[in-house]
């Protein structure tokens, strides 16, 4: 049998029907509880923050989520999805008062060592765009460590760092031995 353009069109049409059939509904009634369930995201990989991290705009009308492309808001009334940050970053929390969306991003920069040689180092930079205006401020540049949370009035950040050149203590999942992360081939830890 010879492959013709008409068969290609039929194949593409059938494939698109199969994809649409596999997509879950936007609303349904849970058979066990009788509760209405509403699917807010249309993009696979969309996730909300963990339950103890604020993920709502100050007025409660928008939910801040991570997507495979960055950070977005979902309008809870209209279900409209709007990008806030269009690159892969680490979402920390949504500010309860300001409407800022705090996130961390690894940023490489060149520095000069004491002996005059240049080297590339990576800072963990904290940024905060407003969820509506998208105006972004750089909050802090951390040469090591990271920020895990922001206090309720958004005046303090909570984080941690390794003091000195202690390395990272890790357990090798393969053999159970312990050692310094990143210093032995069996104990590599991704720092990015």
The whole-angstrom Rg is 23 Å
Measured distance between first and last alpha carbons: 52 Å
The helix-strand sequence is HEEEEEEEEEEEEEE
Question: Uncertain spans, ≥5 residues at pLDDT below 50?
Answer: 179-192
Give an account of the 3D structure:
This protein is mainly beta. The protein has a domain at 26-146. Helices cover 9% and strands 41% of the residues. It has one helix and 14 strands; from the N terminus they run αββββββββββββββ. The chain has one helix at residues 5-22, and strands at residues 27-29, 36-38, 47-48, 62-67, 70-75, 81-85, 90-94, 101-112, 118-129, 136-142, 146-150, 157-160, 168-171, 178-181. A four-stranded antiparallel β-sheet has the order 3-4-5-6, with no helix packed on it. It has a four-stranded antiparallel β-sheet with strand order 7-8-9-10, with no helix packed on it. A hairpin with a 2-residue loop joins strand 4 (62-67) and strand 5. It is elongated.
């Amino acid at each position: 049998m010879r492959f013709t353009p008409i068969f290609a069109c039929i194949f593409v049409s059938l494939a698109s029907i199969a994809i649409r059939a596999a997509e879950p509904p936007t609303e349904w009634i849970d058979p066990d509880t009788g509760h209405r369930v509403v699917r807010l995201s249309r993009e696979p990989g969309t996730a909300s923050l963990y339950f103890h991290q604020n993920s709502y705009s100050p007025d409660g009308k928008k939910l801040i989520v991570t997507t495979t492309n960055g950070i977005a808001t979902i309008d809870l009334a209209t279900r409209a999805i709007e990008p806030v940050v269009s690159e892969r970053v680490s979402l920390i929390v949504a500010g309860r008062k300001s409407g800022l969306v705090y996130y961390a991003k690894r940023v490489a920069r060149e520095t000069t060592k004491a002996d005059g040689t240049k080297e590339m180092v990576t800072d963990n930079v904290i940024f905060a765009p407003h969820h509506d205006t998208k105006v972004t401020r750089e909050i802090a540049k951390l040469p090591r460590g990271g920020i895990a949370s922001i206090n309720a009035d958004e005046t303090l950040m909570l984080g941690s760092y390794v003091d000195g050149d202690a390395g990272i203590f890790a357990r090798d999942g393969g053999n159970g031995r312990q050692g310094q992360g990143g210093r032995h081939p069996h104990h590599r830890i991704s720092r990015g």
